Amino acid sequence: MKPVNNPIFNYTEFGTIKNQVGLNRFTLSVKKWINATNTIGVAAKTGRYGGTYAHSDIARSRTKSKIQRS
User: How far apart are the first and last CA of the chain?
Assistant: First the structure.
């Protein structure tokens, strides 16, 4: 999360979500994450052909980090 890449990212809400992660009642959907933190480059679509989509640069960087950790 670099402010240069997303100057409108909501760090306050991110901190709130981060603090709630360990709670048993905590749930987080992709749409809730996008709306709460003003995430850019990720989209969640419902219905036929729905799913979670990310900008190709985001997807590539996540794949590289998973491969390096394995």
Answer: 22
Separation of alpha carbons 68 and 70, rounded Å: 6
What pTM value is reported for the model? 0.62
What's the angle, vertex CA 63, arms to CA 58 and CA 68, rounded to 5? 130
Q: What is the pLDDT of residues 24-43, one digit of tens each?
A: 999 988 889 888 988 888 88
Nearest 10 degrees: CA dihedral of 1, 22, 54, 35?
A: -80
Q: Contact 31/47 with Cβ under 8 angstroms?
A: no
Q: Which two tokens stand for residue 68?
A: 């390096």
Residue with tokens 């990720």: 42
